[in-house]
Structures are given as structure tokens and as C-alpha cells.
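Tutorial, part two.
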Amino acid sequence: MDDRRKHPRVPLISIARLTRQGLQEATTVLVRDISTHGLGIYSEEAYQNGDLVLIEFSLTAGDETVSESIMGEVVWIAPLPDKAHHAVGIRFDRMMEEKPKLYAHIKHLEEIG
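Running the prediction step on this input gives:
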């Protein structure tokens, strides 16, 4: 399979909370990987391309944990074989400018991964 990503993904298993823009209720999702420009999740909820979401999560590397929230855009979605869950790709456009501590933390994870 051809990997078309421009930025390396760091595999990880973590829980995050996603809130669609304009809604107040968050849903819990499983994070499968992250990069400085995107996030892959598994979700029971079916999102649509173009949905804007607020992602809240914590990342740990060594002794440091970074808890952060960041806006992203759903750029792809695929049903999983169980038909009850979906794989979802979310893109971040301005992490380096808007969340420099999170950006540096993910770059560190890329280097040690």
C-alpha cells in the first residue's frame, strides 16, 4: 500500500474527546496515530469530510505529559469491517503557530519513535 502522507505518523493508543463545531456534547474516540499535521482515530460516530472538530487529548513522552485541545478538519472516513466503527483522518493546519508546545512534543515523539 502506498503511504501518501507528507508527515510521519507516530503510532499511539490513547483516548481523546471530540466535539463537532457548533455542538456541545463531546464523544470519546480512540487515537491510533498522530503527527504534527494530523491525527488518526477510531470512532463509533460517522463523521463527514469537512467536519470541523475540537480534539482534547493528553500525550506522554518520558516524564512529560502535554494536555491540549486543537481544532482539526475531518479529511477522510472509512467504515471498519465490524460496520459499527469508523477510521477517521483529521488534519491540523496551524499546530506549529497555534500550539507550539504540542508541536514540539510531537516532533520529539517522532525522533524517539
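Strands lie at 10-20, 27-35, 38-43, 52-61, 64-79, 86-91. In part three we will examine how such features are distributed along the chain.
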